[in-house]
From TrEMBL:
The lineage of its organism: Eukaryota, Metazoa, Ecdysozoa, Nematoda, Chromadorea. PANTHER family: DIVISION ABNORMALLY DELAYED PROTEIN, GLYPICAN. This is Uncharacterized protein. One of its GO terms (biological process) is cell migration. It comes from the Eukaryota. The keyword Hydrolase does not apply. The keyword DNA-binding does not apply. InterPro entries: Glypican (IPR001863). Belongs to the glypican family. It is a lipid-anchor; GPI-anchor. It comes from Acrobeloides nanus. Keywords: Cell membrane, Glycoprotein, GPI-anchor, Heparan sulfate, Lipoprotein, Membrane, Proteoglycan, Signal. One of its GO terms (cellular component) is cell surface.
Length: 495
């Protein structure tokens, strides 16, 4: 017993009969005492809690790291696109753009805020409306420098804007173009963050109280019968005990696998059709086309605005060419290859990152049902040397079959006293959340715009309860072989 981490102050100087042991009862002389047994419970609980936390924290860190990496790449795509626009607009519009560049910089800031904001007020549509609204009044003032545009005049102008359509259909085209891609990216970011928060909630959960006797019997009771203190439980014995202890956890596996599958599905689209670098690439040209359209129709638009919103006589609008603007297409011909190469490099970076994410997602499938195998087979808890392993009573190997996963299967688990109280309600909120996320991402994949409010609503609650209530338990008779998923930190973080 000295080889253990137990406080042996209560251990008698000579083995004796201990009739007050409830977890490790022995009919022979023993050095175990009630105090030693109490310590065993605490040690076993702490050890198991630590091992589970390592596994769950590993997955949570995986999602947190990819959330940060995806967000960093999205921000860089925005910043790169903004730099290209700055360069192109400075060359094309000169002082006019430099004096009013804040209109565009605010737009990019609003898009970045949209990606990370929990507020439904942040949207692509709102960001575009704000930018084109500012451009509308700014370009009008530039073309009509003798007009004093006060608050009442602006209000009148903005009231006319929907009918005038000074930028044509460009705002709508840009909105549709950006919404599908960036909304899909936001849905992935938001969902990854929600899953990470769910994992943190799971970390706070406790194992069933009636699991502890079986856990202590597996981990510690061999010292009470005089066996080698360093002996380990048999692998199949360990798996059976943990199948019972983690039966409630395994009930999450169906929804877990579903959310991994939809992560995979939407990520494949994000890296190709919704690659942010490809989606953002035409934005500078599209915005400039809108400005040029306003310029071409400037006189007509200005006259209509002045006649409606200003009291004094109509003045002829001045063309933007007065301010030494150049033709946008001529400017683009100067350095198209440089932008194309840079865009392709950044797009490839996003693709590589997403490919790595997809590949590592596949290693997480079945995590909750394979958790007992993972913990028992990693060399820390159990051994495959079946002739010299602890079976709960002696070092004679373990002959019982491994039971299936899930709560229903535990009625066949002989390592637990009946009734073994387990509840499907334990992680129900998390399962509903994952099911809701899955539905949302499926909708986004089908082309719907991400609706963040649905994540916190009860929209899917009825169908979620129905789906969860009929989800069948896995009644297979797995033997706990080495073919089960074996998660390690190296396998999750390396290619």
């Amino acid at each position: 017993m000295k080889e253990t981490n137990l406080d042996i102050a209560s251990v008698p100087s000579e083995p004796t009969y201990a009739f007050n042991l409830s977890v490790c009862p022995v009919s022979r002389l023993t050095c175990c005492t009630y105090e030693i047994e109490r310590q065993m419970v605490n040690v076993s609980h702490s050890k198991m809690e630590r091992l589970v936390q390592v596994q769950i924290n590993m997955i949570r860190r995986f999602f947190d790291d990819y959330y940060n990496s995806f967000l960093e790449h999205l921000k860089e795509a925005l910043h790169s696109n903004q730099r290209q626009l700055d360069e192109m607009f400075s060359r094309t519009y000169g002082p006019f753009y430099r004096r009013n560049s804040k209109i565009v910089s605010d737009f990019y800031e609003d898009i970045e805020a949209f990606l990370v904001s929990d507020s439904s007020e942040k949207s692509i549509k709102a960001a575009l409306n704000k930018m084109f609204r500012s451009m509308y009044s700014t370009i009008f003032a530039l073309m009509n420098p003798l007009r004093n545009v006060g608050s009442s005049e602006k209000e009148c102008m903005f009231h006319m804007k929907p009918k005038l359509k000074p930028f044509g259909s460009l705002p709508k085209q840009v909105r549709i173009h950006l919404e599908r891609s960036l909304s899909a990216w936001k849905s992935l970011l938001y969902s990854i963050r929600e899953v990470s928060q769910s994992l943190n909630e799971i970390l706070q959960s406790k194992l069933p109280s009636n699991c502890m006797p079986s856990l202590v019997r597996m981990n510690m009771c061999h010292v009470c019968v005089g066996a080698n203190p360093l002996a380990k439980p048999c692998a199949k014995y360990c798996i059976n005990v943990l199948k019972g202890c983690f039966a409630e956890f395994s009930e999450m596996d169906t929804q877990w696998n579903s959310i991994l599958a939809v992560f995979n599905k939407i990520s494949n689209r994000l890296k190709e059709a919704y690659n942010p670098n490809s989606v953002l690439s035409p934005i500078p040209v599209q915005i400039s086309e809108g400005i040029m359209l306003f310029q071409e129709n400037g006189a007509t638009l200005s006259n209509r605005i002045i006649s409606r919103c200003f009291q004094s006589s109509i003045r002829v609008a001045r063309d933007l060419s007065t301010y030494e603007t150049n033709d946008i297409m001529a400017s683009l011909k100067e350095t198209p290859k440089v932008h194309q190469l840079k865009h392709r490099y950044q797009a490839d970076n996003i693709k590589r990152l997403t490919d790595a994410f997809i590949e590592k997602l596949s290693r997480l499938k079945g995590f909750w049902r394979s958790l007992p195998q993972t913990l028992c087979m990693d060399g820390q808890m159990a051994t495959f040397e079946n002739d010299q392993c602890w079976n709960g009573k002696s070092l004679n190997g373990y002959q019982k079959k491994v039971v299936a996963s899930g709560i229903s299967a535990q009625r066949f688990n002989s390592e637990f006293e009946k009734p073994f109280q387990l509840s499907r309600e334990k992680f129900l909120d998390i399962r509903i959340k994952w099911l809701t996320i899955t539905h949302q991402l499926e909708s986004v994949y089908d082309g719907e715009i991400f609706n963040q409010s649905s994540y916190s609503s009860n929209y899917y609650e009825g169908s979620a309860f129905a789906e969860l209530s009929i989800s069948p338990d896995d009644e297979d008779t797995i033997e706990g072989s080495a073919n089960e998923i074996h998660m390690t930190q190296e396998s999750l973080y390396t290619g």
